[in-house]
Amino acid sequence: MNLDSKAPSGPIEQAWDKYRFEMKLVNPANKRKYSILVVGSGLAGASAAASLAELGYNVNCYCFQDSPRRAHSIAAQGGINAAKNYPNDGDSVYRLFYDTVKGGDFRAREHNVYRLAQISLNIIDQCVAQGVPFAREYSGYLTNRSFGGAQVSRTFYARGQTGQQLLLGAYQALERQVGLGTVRMFPRTEMLDLIVIDGRARGIVTRNLIDGKIETHLADAVVLGTGGYGNVFFLSTNAKGSNCTAIWRAYKRGALFANPCFTQIHPTCIPV
Ligand SMILES: Cc1cc2nc3c(=O)[nH]c(=O)nc-3n(C[C@H](O)[C@H](O)[C@H](O)COP(=O)(O)OP(=O)(O)OC[C@H]3O[C@@H](n4cnc5c(N)ncnc54)[C@H](O)[C@@H]3O)c2cc1C
Q1: Which atom of ligand 1 is nearest to the CA of 41?
Q2: Residue 60 near residue 184, CB atoms below 8 Å
Q3: Which of 37, 38, 43 to mutate to test the pocket of ligand 1 (most atoms within 8 A of CB)?
Q4: Fewer CB within 10 Å of terminal CB in the chain, N or C?
């Protein structure tokens, strides 16, 4: 089996910048000739669909629910980490990378964690631009708290409803693109299978959950932002829709499935 993770080469601090520079670009005028299917409209799917559409691609976005606002992301509470170092307490991209690898019991894929730490800076700016009402100091600056055992304060939050506010922001960005006609939204639609052509994911088979109609959708690329699978446990704070149906179908079609041990479980789920 080919276990190439396609991690970019070179020192980890420079690998992604080098990769981004060497990537083939698509001419802005040509982007509208490409179509992308985004399955899922939670924080991952809604943001990906809105951003790809804003870049100029034609996007179809699918979800089970009657509205993207009902994705499970709405339930996240505590906050989102970013190495902005606003409190000047010694944080850096490298420290967020290091803490995350350590927090992942040294099993996470380091290149991906580094990228996550790098773009954490931009994600906060993107969310603020989308109107997410993060907590602020009295002076107006964004405030931070220490979360999850971190030695620095790097968590941006909106009281205990950060996921809700983030998803409403992502949803607004998505709806803006729906209004502009660059995203076609397919709510109440379940992905039943992945279509692979010449080793690439090029389409999906869907079922309309209202009338049962089965359809095929083809495109140049498919993005799966279909969430977690905490319901493998008897007790879970994940919504029942977090059921891994989509990633399981991708796995059956040849995608690799890594680290199933990384399943979030909340202490509130542990019976007394
Ligand atoms: C109680 C709770 C608190 C949390 N607190 C935090 C926190 O403080 N900080 C933090 O960083 N994280 C937190 N998390 C984790 C975080 O919320 C999730 O990791 C994140 O929201 C997942 O986003 P997502 O877009 O990947 O998935 P989801 O929001 O679950 O979205 C999945 C989407 O995929 C669609 N979908 C799935 N399968 C199919 C299919 N077969 N066909 C069509 N559509 C499909 C669904 O309809 C949905 O739109 C928390 C989670 C929980 C449960």
Answers
A1: 49
A2: yes
A3: 43
A4: C
Pick the more confident residue, 88 or 235.
88
Distance CA 253, CA 265 (A): 28
Q: 34 near 6, Cβ under 8 Å? A: no
Q: Measuring CA to CA, how many Å separate 106 from each of 103, 114, 137, 152, 201? A: 7, 13, 35, 20, 30
Core vs surface per residue 192-224: b (16+ CB within 10 A) or e: ebbbeeeeebbbbebbeeeeeeeeebebeebbb
Contact 203, 196 (CB under 8 A): no
Answer positive or negative: Cα dihedral of 235, 239, 240, 244.
Answer: negative
Is the pLDDT score of 239 beyond 90? no
The model scores a pTM over 0.85: yes
> Who lines ligand 1 at CB under 6 A?
39-45, 62-65, 71-73, 75-80, 162-163, 190-191, 225-228, 237-238, 241-242, 245-246, 264, 266
Q: Which domains does the chain have, with CATH numbers?
A: 1-25+78-160 (3.50.50.60), 34-68+164-272 (3.50.50.60)
